[in-house]
Amino acid sequence: MTTDAQALRSTAVPAERRVRIRQVSGAGAMTLGGAAGGALALTWLLYERILAASGVLGFWLSWYVIFLLMYAAMAAMQWDKLAVRDRVASVALAGAGVLTCAIVFDQVGFSLARGLAAVTHVSFFTHTLANAGPLSPMADGGVLGAMVGTLEEIGLATLFSVPLGITAAIFLVEVGGAWARPVRTLVEAMTALPDIIAGLFVLAFAILTLGLQHCALAASLALAVTMMPIVARGSETVIRLVPGMLREASYALGSSQWRTVWNVVLPTARSGLSTAVVLGMARGIGETAPVLLTAGYIKGLNFNPVNGWQTSLPMLIFNERQQPDANDLARAFGAGFTLLLLVLVLFTIARLLGGNKPGELSRRSRRRIARETVRR
Amino acid sequence: MGAELLSSPSPAASGDVPRRIYARSSAGDKVFRGVLRGAGMAVMAILGLILAFLALRGWSAFRATGLSFFTTQSWFISTNKFGIAAILPDGILIALIAMIIAVPVAIATALYISEYAPPVLRRALTSLIDLMAAVPSIVWAMWGLFFLEPRILGISSWLARHLGFIPFLHSVLPLTTPSFTTSAFIAGVVISLMVIPIVTSLSREVFSQAPQAEREAAYALGSTRWAMVRTVVLPFGRAGVIGSSMLGMGRALGETIVVTFILSPIYVFNFHVLNTGGNSIPFMIALNFSNGPKTVSALMAAGLVLFALTLLVNVIGSMVTSRSRSGLITVN
Fold it and tell me: Which helix (H) or strand (E) holds A371?
């Protein structure tokens, strides 16, 4: 009797096995590797030997298409229709991810590698282009003038765009109302506004109408127009994340709205706000089109932001690229290296600052608070 | 007694009315709110000023040509034979090429990051996409000119040779390599790489907000991951994808430096995208902005058209995003 029941149970309910999701099975990995290798061989045979096409881009494009077809065929031999679709979709999407990564690495790597020839000369950072003639060696001529111009322009543009951008963001979150919606839509639309329009606007408004000359101030106004919406949009996102409880606590203690914003909302969102500012600067520092129309171009050094033409790094690349000499091209790539490095540094700073969510304390500030608490 | 107590909250019985709650703001708050409103209005004022001054400066050129400004293909300033009938569609063509390449790749990348990538990789990839958006356009332009162009000519000539029966891909020049340099196609490919991060990061944000309950419901009904993505994530994110693509389109229409580096200018509408030569309004502005007051006026008028077009595309894009289900979650 009992043995019968045991036998019955063992046939009806097989021993339970935990299902592991996202498991890498041997068959799956082999199918993937087999399809990749097979596609490589077939593409090589077709592309290089039979069709005799050329170009490395075409090769990998053909490889990807053949790989997907092979993978689908091999999957169809082992699994049912739903599983095949699922697997082919995930491989195709992962391919897009790999492609995008490859483009970024290739792009950054190429720009850094081509720039090395110039930036290995120390003089590249201590000379201007004033004495660099058509045939002068790499030891002459550098980006000092352009560095001064870039720093002045981005500094002034930050000064103009950040207060306006952050105030507009506070308006969108803290005041709101009927006007907030169109303003938000316009800010978002302005983030993708053509950068050359900003230059054209400053040319029409400040230079042709108000009589300002081409100078770093005019360029920084144009840059501020492109940076402001980016700062505003980034700031709005982080200010919106500040918990409502904190505001309510502040109001309950009797503080006014501007005290609440100044002492509670902004300090809470500080790290996110700095990220928004730094990302705006990273965008502004590489803009070429607004500067092209408003700053002019000189080879020498000019510290004065309101008088005389000034060169920035993008403008130096723009002009040196058009020169016939190989050294000029090398200097253009060197300036590209410098520019990309500046952007990477700004970007890393933004990531480090933006690691914390609003209200989340870093280890250092937690230590500081603990110290102050003990002292009292 | 009990019945009376129960009925007492009704205002008619006891004469109580709910007190209206209002806050009297202090003088400081009034000033503060005024400053904030001012900043909000300043955003609108900047856009208004751009519109006004481009119109003001472009007016003389527009008066010289009249409506033929929109129908003339040539660019002869001194004889008043200039217009945007060639350079506007040429620029739109480049933007369309960029979008055809960028949108599928961007959606696939966004789906991979939000749905398929392991959590560790997800953060790194998100940063990488943001970095791609931060790379200056002039660095992209140098890369496009010196790295991509020599390597992509093979694809151009293959397309013209084998798919030449499609009107857009037909080559009117002999099928040799020089016919395919400095073409709208190459400019479009480089611009597509600059649009990919914009569309990817916005779409990824929307995809990752697809409700967990609905995802789990799809899994509980036995769907595979791809089926879940198709039935839950994609429909949820559709408006976000459309909106972000339109913002990307606005960016592609206005890209200046890449076009300036890669294209050689022509003044007729050229829809053979693989062949040498193309144009766009930003390209014209960058080429001719120092050519005397009459040219500058003509460029201002062309710039006004570009501004109106991109603003329209972008406003529609951001409205589509914010009115959708996913957009409402983001804002509220």
Answer: helix A363-375
Domain A144-358 has CATH 3.40.50.11290: no
Residue B43: inside a domain, yes or no? no
Nearest by CB to A194, which of B104, B224, B306? Answer: B306
pLDDT over 60 (residue A287): yes
Q: Looking at chain A from residue 213 to 242, which residues have their Cβ under 8 Å from any Cβ of chain B?
A: 225, 228-229, 232, 240
Look at A97 and A25; give whichever has higher pLDDT.
A97
Comparing A135 with B59, the larger pLDDT belongs to B59
How long a stretch of residues is chain B? Answer: 332
Asked if A187 and B250 come within 8 Å (Cβ–Cβ), the reply is no
Beta bridge partners of B183: B276, B277
A83 has a chain B CB within 8 A of its CB = yes
**pLDDT lower than 50: segments of chain B:** 1-9, 331-332
Q: For chain A, percent helix, then strand, then coil, each to nearest 5?
A: 75, 0, 25
Q: What is the pLDDT of residues A165-203, one digit of tens each?
A: 999 999 999 888 888 888 988 998 888 888 899 999 999
Q: Residue A104: its chain B contacts at CB < 8 A? A: 128, 131-132, 135
- The answer to whether B89 touches A73, Cβ cutoff 8 Å, is no
Interchain CB contact of A265 with B (< 8 Å): no
How many angstroms separate the CA of residue B238 from the nearest CA in chain A?
Answer: 17
Judge contact between A65 and A91, C-beta under 8 A. no
A111 vs B142, B255, B317: nearest CB: B142
pLDDT tens digits, one per residue of A239-267: 988 888 999 999 999 888 889 999 999 98
- Chain A residues within 8 A of B125 when measuring between CB atoms: 97, 101
Domain boundaries, chain A: 26-118, 144-358
Q: Which of A331, A225, A238 is nearest to A283 (CA)?
A: A225
pLDDT-derived band of residue A1, with 50, 70 and 90 as boundaries? very low
Contacts of residue B122, defined as CB under 8 A and 6 or more positions apart, other chains included, come to B113, B114
Chain A, nearest residue to B25 by Cα: A256
- A171 contacts B37? CB cut-off 8 A: yes
Q: Is A151 an interface residue toward B (CB < 8 Å)? A: no
Phi (first) and psi of residue B57, to 5 degrees: -75, -25
Whether the pLDDT of residue A12 is over 70: the answer is no
Under an 8 A CB cutoff, do A204 and B300 touch? Answer: yes
Flag whether B1 is in a domain.
no
> Which pLDDT belongs to residue B301?
92
By residue range, what is the domain housing residue B169? 85-331
Q: Do A289 and B256 touch (CB under 8 A)?
A: yes
Looking at residue A248, what is its pLDDT? 92
Residues of A in contact with B28 (CB under 8 A): 256, 258
Task: Say yes or no for a CB contact (<8 Å) between B131 and A347.
Answer: yes
B67 within domain boundaries: no
Q: Which of B26, B125, B134 sits opposite A283 (nearest CB)?
A: B134
CATH of the domain at B135: 1.10.3720.10
pLDDT at A354: 67
- The pLDDT of residue A271 is 83
Contact B57 A208 (CB under 8 A): yes
For chain B, say whether A61 makes contact (Cβ under 8 Å). Answer: yes
Q: How many domains does one find in chain B?
A: 1
Query: Measured between beta carbons, which residues in chain B are less than 8 angstroms from residue A285?
Result: 136
Tell me if B235 sits within 8 A of B325, measured CB to CB.
no
- Distance (Å, rounded) from C-alpha B4 to C-alpha A237? 52
What are the start-end ranges of the E strands in chain B? Answer: 75-76, 81-82
Please give the share of chain A, as a percent, with pLDDT higher than 90: 20
Q: Is residue B105 part of a domain?
A: yes
One-letter amino acid at B203 equals: S
Q: What angle do CA A198, A204, A205 make, to 5 degrees?
A: 85
